[in-house]
Amino acid sequence: MRRDFRESGRDGALGEVEPALRGGGLPLPGLKRWRLRRRLSRKELARRADLANNHLFEIESGRRGCNPETAQLLADLLNVNLQDLRRKYEDAVETKVPPKPSRPRIAYRNVHQAYLRILLDRAVGSAYAAMDEWEIEKRCKESSWEEVIEAIRARKRELEFLGEVLEARQVLQDPDLPEDVRAFLESVLGSFPDLDIHLLAMVRRREPTEEGHEALTKAMLDLL
Question: What is the C-alpha to C-alpha distance for residues 95 and 130, in angstroms, rounded to an integer?
Fold first, then answer.
């Protein structure tokens, strides 16, 4: 679901907003802090923002300023106010991205996917959410940007439907639900919107047209 709020830093002493550099570039001393809080590697954030990894490193380290449009995109991707990226925080910043919880090993995953595909096909008319990540990546690489955006919209409808059904019937709270089924359903629901943003960014990087590039960027921002 679209988030209509942005988080602001409150757990570290805030400094003044760093002024723009000569030429209009914006220093972003808070960028690394917020990237780490979102559990994103520099490589992943650079991919989502369609930036070179080295370029993002230079912005984070203060070696260069960031143009206002890219700075706002980074703030949108991290779901914070641009002002927070422009502040210097007094609290120490970790040097590594905190490790993500390991995905539980799921027995009979292909069986769970088959049932989910049948359910979604009958109820929503599509079943992208039942695909493995590699499978939907392959589909997106072979599709036009219009088809990719439609697939992402279909995934959103599927996951909203699935979430509503599971919540209404309190399926995930059922103590008799097999643990592997619970883990599978939670992993499917938890893939949104990170997987969807990754897929859009992947297609945007190789899209040659300005129209497609702008549409894919808008679709990414709509997921935040």
Answer: 36
